[in-house]
Amino acid sequence: MAFLPGSLPPSNFQWRRKQHRSARMKSEDGVVQGVPIEEIEKHPNVKFHRQGILNDEVQKYGEDTKVVKGGSHPEEWSTDPLQRTVVNPPVYHNSTVLFKTTAAYKYAASDWPFTGMWYGRHGNPTSWALEEAFAVIEGGYAACATGSGVAANNAAILAFVESGDHLIVTDGCYDPTREFCDGFLKRFKVETTYVSPLITPDELAKEIRPNTKIVFVESPSSLSFEIMDIPALAKVAHDVRTLPSYAEG
């Protein structure tokens, strides 16, 4: 799941709340374990979650170089006094994270993942390297790795809808996505309209309602492999109601 250029993460992610909490902590404390918070925020993992990658220096590279550079921070992977390091990120096998001081723990717990690593389920340098690389290659604002495609689809939908909302989904979607819409979402009074994977932009515009919150397309379609005109359909969604469009393929 990646946030596209020009769009901010959904309010359901409590992005603004986290930013306010970070600003408050910064003004009250200023230093954690003897390290200024300004220095902590320069660390690649913290910087990625706070700022995304749109303004990152990696954007100046060509597409081939981005594939190599995206998510790569070898200077952070060295434990060698001579700064010898490795090409690829180490694989972190962890759930629990150790902290030297209570202050460091409280800082990390206050605003994860915007304060770096706190608990394995919320991410670690290995998963964050993957997310950053994906965002760089796809040209997104940021990215979120999940345990499966179903989890990615469901998380993207739940980030935008609530009871009483409506969403538009391609009839060629992955079957578990349909089950999620017809089962879980229906129980919470979220209505789904399925449209042809060959729908035109004009036809899509007619399906958008005042309470439509997301247009979900999949290209190529699951099993039947129709190719949808994602740019044209996304433009309609953005023009009619500034709707988020989610493409899965």
From TrEMBL:
Its cofactor is pyridoxal 5'-phosphate. Signal peptide: none annotated. Pfam families: Cys_Met_Meta_PP (PF01053). Keywords: Lyase, Pyridoxal phosphate. Residues 1-30 are annotated as: Disordered. SUPFAM superfamilies: PLP-dependent transferases (SSF53383). InterPro entries: Cys/Met-Metab_PyrdxlP-dep_enz, Cys_b_lyase_bac, PyrdxlP-dep_Trfase, PyrdxlP-dep_Trfase_major. Residues 15-24 have a biased composition (Basic residues). This is Cystathionine beta-lyase. Transmembrane segments: none annotated. One of its GO terms (molecular function) is pyridoxal phosphate binding. Belongs to the trans-sulfuration enzymes family. The keyword Repressor does not apply. GO terms for biological process: L-cysteine catabolic process to pyruvate; transsulfuration. It catalyses: L,L-cystathionine + H2O = L-homocysteine + pyruvate + NH4(+).
